[in-house]
Design brief:
- The protein is α+β, with helices and mostly antiparallel strands.
- It has a single domain, classed as Maf protein.
- 30% of the residues lie in helices and 24% in strands.
- Helix 4 packs across helix 5.
Length: 198
């Protein structure tokens, strides 16, 4: 029997990553859009985990199936871990990431390499029909670059530089990115948890 999992996102780039990482499970994975679900969800949690749970529960209440949701963000140490849980809403949700990235680079103008440390954080929540909720977290450490580089990522990927690879996450292949990314790490952890239950 095929297992169905709904992922509470309408982000096509994110769904591509999710389907690639969970491809070997044999589960049917649908986005909210593919399920015809379009509901306003207010992400008013204080942590990535809380926001992921809010999203998963909101969708699970409607569809009654296993729902996964993620919340992720970029934390820049020099900027007191901004934009953090507000990463998607930083400078306004409709502001392009080219503008957001340029703003962050500008705010770090003159800041040396060793103080440009940053990380991507991703929390994933799984909400089960029996009311049980589990969460996992993945983190990737790096630095903020001096310019946008690479065309393969989305969001803040073009400015997130990995010193050990000499590349931004937007310069990595899909497979390489999925193997080390914050979302990849959190998804693989949640995959192991789901395997125990499905």
């Amino acid at each position: 029997m095929n297992k169905r999992v709904i992922f509470a996102t309408g982000n096509a780039d994110k769904m591509k990553e999710i389907k690639e990482i969970l491809a070997d499970t044999g589960w049917e994975i649908f986005s909210m859009k593919e399920m015809g679900l379009d509901i306003p969800i207010e992400e008013n949690g204080a942590t990535y985990e809380e926001n992921a749970i809010i999203k998963a529960k909101a969708v699970a209440e409607i569809c009654g199936e296993i729902v996964l949701a993620d919340d992720s963000g970029l934390e820049i140490d020099y900027l007191n871990k901004e934009p953090g849980i507000y990463s998607a809403r930083y400078m306004g949700e409709d502001t392009s990431y080219r503008i957001k990235n340029a703003n962050l680079i500008e705010r770090l103008s003159g800041v040396p390499d060793e103080k440009r440390t940053a990380r991507f954080v991703c929390a994933i929540a799984a909400d089960f029909p029996n009311g049980e909720v589990i969460t996992t977290r993945g983190v990737i450490e790096g630095r903020i670059g001096y310019e946008e580089r690479g065309k393969n990522g989305f969001g803040y990927d073009p400015i997130f530089y990995l010193p050990e690879l000499g590349k931004t996450t937007a310069e990595l292949s899909d497979d390489d990115k999925n193997s080390i990314s914050h979302r990849g790490k959190a998804l693989r952890k949640i995959k192991e948890e789901l395997k125990k239950k499905l």
